Structure formats: C-alpha cells, structure tokens
Amino acid sequence: MEFQVYHFDSLDSTNNWLKQNAVQGFIKPGAVVQANFQSDGRGRLGRKWESKSEDGLMFSMLLEPLLPESLLPLIGLLISLGMFDGIAKEIGDTSQLKLRWPNDILYDNKKLSGILCESTHSDDDKKLTIAGIGLNVNQTTADFEGDFRTPATSLHMITGKRSSPAKLLPTFLQSIGFYLDRLETEGWSWVSREWIECSGLTGEHVEVADGNQRIAGIVEEIRVDGALVLNLGRGVRRTVRSGELSS
Ligand code: BT5
Fold it and tell me: Measured in whole angstroms, how far is the alpha carbon of residue 220 from the centre of its chain?
C-alpha cells in the first residue's frame, strides 16, 4: 500500500483535518496526516486524547472502503494488529504487550496507544473510512498524573529512550500497510482470529460497561465482525458490540 504523508506542527485533530479534506475531495485514500501537537485530540465517545507537543505520535489515515460499514470495527482491530507489530519492533519484548478490546494497546496493563475509527461520506457521496492513532512516545510518569481512565505509559517509560515521533511514523505505516495489503488479498476472516491471539483474552473473566449497563462474563471469542462474545454462566452467552472492557 502506498501512502502520501502530510506533516503539521499543530492541528486541532488529525482526524478532523483528514475528514474535512477528504469530504471535499482534496485528498485520496492512502493519505496520512501526522501532527506534533493536537489542540483538540479526540478519543471515542467525545473523550479527549492528551499529548504535549512532540510527546506522542498522532496520525490519521484515509482508507479505501475495504469493508462494508457494518464491519468498521474490524478496521480498528486490523490497525491495532499493525500498531502491535510496530511497537514490538520498538521495544523488542512483547511479553507485557496486549491488545485490549476494542482498540487499545496496553503494556503492563497501562495504556500505550489508542485508536479512533470513523466513517463518513464525501460531498460526491463516496464512503470514507478514517483511522486515527495515538501512541505515547516521550511522556514521563508526571505527564500521566491527571485524570486518565486507565493508567498510561509511553515508549520512553518502557525503553528509557526518547524518539522523534515523526521519525517513528514510517515503521508504523509499514506494519499497518502489511495488514491492509493482507485484507485486500486474503479477505477479512483472519483479522479477529489473529487479534484474539495477541489479546490473550480467551477464557479471561472481564466486565464490559456500555452506558449504564455492566456485563460480566468469560470471553469465549471475538466474532468475525469484531463483536465480543461473553459466557455469562448457566449456558447464557451475550454478544457485545461496544463498551469499555476491564478485567
Ligand atoms: C482512544 O479513545 O483511545 C482513541 C484515541 C485516538 C487518538 C488519535 S490521535 C490522532 C487522531 N486524531 C484524533 O483527534 N484522535 C486520534 P478512548 O478509548 O476513548 O480513550 C480516551 C481516554 O484515554 C481519555 O478519556 C483519557 O482518560 C485517556 N487518555 C487521554 N490521552 C491519553 C494518552 N495520551 N495516553 C493514555 N490515555 C489517554
């Protein structure tokens, strides 16, 4: 897969920039935008992604509509697989690295990376898929003393090294590109299978909070469409499509 990369010192949000330019037809699938700082970095459900200038790798990718809209969650799983491989190359040791459903990457149970996938339509009604990725690079413990939902970590806190986020981008584009190419050649049935292997979730007792509802159970599988299947006991199974997972 070929990427066309745009770099900015500061944007409100790389997802916003990509969306605005894609909707108006100024950029094509394969466009990637990276910013050293976001004044309004977004997480899921209206939450914020916080990172000081040059502390994190923050980028968004405009993707071909590779899957039907109902399978958008799979794009998040696929991007997580690419990020997992790229991070593994940076830190060398994957024993503490885990994927957390739906789209987080944790090291030693602390959040290292988060992914936000969105879809929209261009002015001439083409479907657009946008994947936004935040990876903590140079932060120290003090940077994560605020109000974070999950304890957080950075590559620097793991390896002791500092890096230029922009210089890390090619490694991650290569590893994500590898999985996007596989999607085109092999279809998508392997994505959830490989994702669950890297998550170590099968058989784990977890709780998923979705709005006011909390569901606790044992993880049986991730369905091919990215939904989580929980065994609640006494033969009851529940399929969960969105929410926050804790274990
Ligand atoms: C995510 O949301 O984890 C998706 C984050 C996606 C960010 C990228 S950066 C490039 C692109 N442009 C954007 O505007 N966004 C994307 P969620 O699962 O909702 O997690 C958000 C929560 O994580 C927040 O409510 C905080 O508690 C916490 N958080 C915020 N910044 C963090 C950080 N740097 N590291 C770890 N946790 C953080």
Answer: 22
The whole-number pLDDT of residue 90 equals: 96
Any atom of ligand 1 within 6 Å of the Cβ of 50: yes
User: Is the CB of residue 113 less than 8 Å from the CB of residue 105?
Assistant: yes
Based on the domain organization, do 174 and 102 belong to the same domain? Answer: yes
Rounded mean pLDDT, 239-246: 90
pLDDT of 68 reads 80
The amino acid occupying position 108 is D
Residue 238 corresponds to which tokens in the numbers above? 């529940």
How many domains, the chain? Answer: 2
Q: Is the pLDDT of residue 215 over 90?
A: yes
Q: Report how far ligand 1's centroid is from the alpha carbon of 124 (Å).
A: 31
In a shared domain, residues 104 and 163: yes
Determine the structural domain holding residue 207 and report its residue range.
203-246
CA 70, CA 83: separation in Å to the nearest integer? Answer: 23
Assign residue 232 the CATH number of its domain: 2.30.30.100
Instruction: Indicate whether 35 and 133 sit together in one domain.
Output: yes
184 and 209 assigned to the same domain: no
Distances (CA, A) of 172 to 3, 25, 86, 205: 12, 25, 5, 31
Index of the ligand 1 atom closest to the CA of residue 41: 14
Residues 135, 224: one domain?
no
pTM of the model: 0.95
DSSP string, 75-126: HHHHHHHHHHHHHHHHHS--TTEEEETTTEEEETTEEEEEEEEEEEE-TT--
